[in-house]
Design a protein that fits this description.
This protein is mostly beta strands. The chain has helices spanning about 20-30, 45-50; strands spanning about 5, 10-20, 35-40, 55-65, 70-80, 95-105. Strands 1, 2, 3, 4, 5 and 6 form a six-stranded mixed beta sheet that branches.
Length: about 110
């Protein structure tokens, strides 16, 4: 981990998400490079988060269950889709918000 880019917490706009172990491990291993959230009113906040704090790096902090955040990724973009990009990673026939994950970073 020491070769990861380090970011100061005050230079980031953070979004904290809790993941089931399966999804956390797939992201940790670099298999899954996006995170889906159901297209329901609760997750519309992703777009507010994305547009606020201009100039700050958008970072998602993932937690495995309810443990403290242990991995952080720069978010390269957000979008939505009527179907999952990979049907094995969600409900393929339901619309989703998508966070496209960039580089893994350390946040201090």
């Amino acid at each position: 981990m020491s070769n990861m880019r380090k970011l100061e917490r005050d230079s980031c706009s953070m979004l904290h998400l809790i993941l089931k172990e399966k999804w956390y491990d797939m992201i940790d291993l670099g298999i899954k490079k996006e995170e889906y959230r159901d297209e329901i009113p609760h997750w519309e906040r992703i777009y507010s988060w994305w547009s606020e704090d201009a100039g700050k790096t958008k970072v998602v902090a993932f937690q495995r269950g309810y443990k403290k955040p242990s991995m952080w990724f720069v978010v390269d973009g957000i979008g939505n889709s009527d179907v999952s990009v990979n049907p094995d990673w969600g409900e393929p026939d339901h619309p989703h918000h998508i966070l496209f994950l960039g580089e893994r970073v350390e946040v201090s």
